[in-house]
Amino acid sequence: MSDQLTFGLIGQRIGYSFSPAFFGHFFAKNGWKHQYQLFDCQSIEKVKTVLHDDAVFGFNVTIPYKKQIIPLLSELTPAAESIGAVNVVYRNKNGLLVGDNTDFIGFRQSLLETLVHWPQMAFVLGTGGASLAVAYVLEQLRIPFFWVSRTASAHPQVLHYDDLLDIDFPDAVLWVQTTPLGSEHATDQCPAIPYEKITNQHSCFDLVYQPEKTLFLMKAQQKGATIQNGSNMLHYQALAAWNLWAASM
Predict the structure, then answer these.
(1) What is the CATH number of domain 6-101?
(2) Distance CA 20, CA 24 (A)
(3) Residues 66-96: tens digit of each pLDDT
(4) Helical segments of 146-230, H only
(5) Minimal CA–CA distance to 63: which of 102, 29, 17?
(6) Predicted confidence band at 232 (pLDDT cuts at 50, 70, 90)?
(7) 104-232 has which CATH code?
(8) CA-based, 20 to 30 A from 74: which of 109, 121, 165, 210?
(9) What's the pLDDT score for residue 1?
């Protein structure tokens, strides 16, 4: 392993990210001199430029580029290809850019640690790149689910938020919030779901980790639901990303 490598996060409006502090501490604890940088990219063209900087060995990828970045990569791992989204990029032994996904690893581990009541049904709020990793895990765990979107869709597995008003929910329901609503730039916002239908047998998972308790989680907790933010998921996916980078060195 080289004495000093550079890694970084590609995304937009990512100044709040925990990644530099997490990896900085992780590198220091292990006695490594590696560096971690933020690449705040306002366009996909800027992402392309960053990816071709050979001085950076590996990347994490966040909103809004988890799907947009795929055409810029040389290959995808089977997991990333199945999910249709990338949150980790590394250079293989030939120097080619490979896209992978560790979001599903982080979500699965955190979810299984959180659940009190096994869900009879799940609703994934949002249809972006992170939602695809969540769906991948739900399929693995054989939990029936629907995506919920603000945009009408002909897809049989995608509901509009208004459709939730007419659903008779089973006893045990899992809600997974995958949108930026409630994050540092939108702390006063939350998905428009029927919170009055949430019970103490429901589990509510928010991929947002700052603030620690979003408006979505606060409303769910008031109804007695089990709640979990995205902090544990973030740690698990970050460690899995490091394992990919280390294996490709």
Answers:
(1) 3.40.50.10860
(2) 6
(3) 999 999 999 999 999 999 999 999 999 999 9
(4) 215-222
(5) 17
(6) very high
(7) 3.40.50.720
(8) 109
(9) 54
Q: How many Cβ atoms sit within 10 Å of the Cβ of residue 75?
A: 12
Spatial separation of the C-alpha atoms in residues 33 and 35, rounded to whole Å: 7
3-state secondary structure of 47: helix
pLDDT, tens digit, 9 for 90 and up, residues 138-169: 999 999 999 999 998 889 999 999 999 999 99
pLDDT in tens, 162-194: 999 999 999 999 999 999 999 988 899 999 999
Mean residue pLDDT of the chain comes to 96
Distance CA 233, CA 249 (A): 25
| Catalytic member of 46, 66, 93, 223 | 66
Cβ-based burial of 44 (10 A; exposed 0-12, middle 13-18, buried ≥19): middle
Asked if omega into 180 is within 30° of 0 (cis), the reply is no
Alpha-carbon torsion (56, 81, 23, 204), positive or negative: positive
| 2, pLDDT greater than 80 | no
Residue 28, both tokens: 């220091």
Copy the structure tokens of residue 221: 């907790």
pLDDT band with cut points at 50, 70 and 90 for residue 3: confident
Residue 223 a catalytic site member: no
Q: Per-domain residue ranges for the chain?
A: 6-101, 104-232
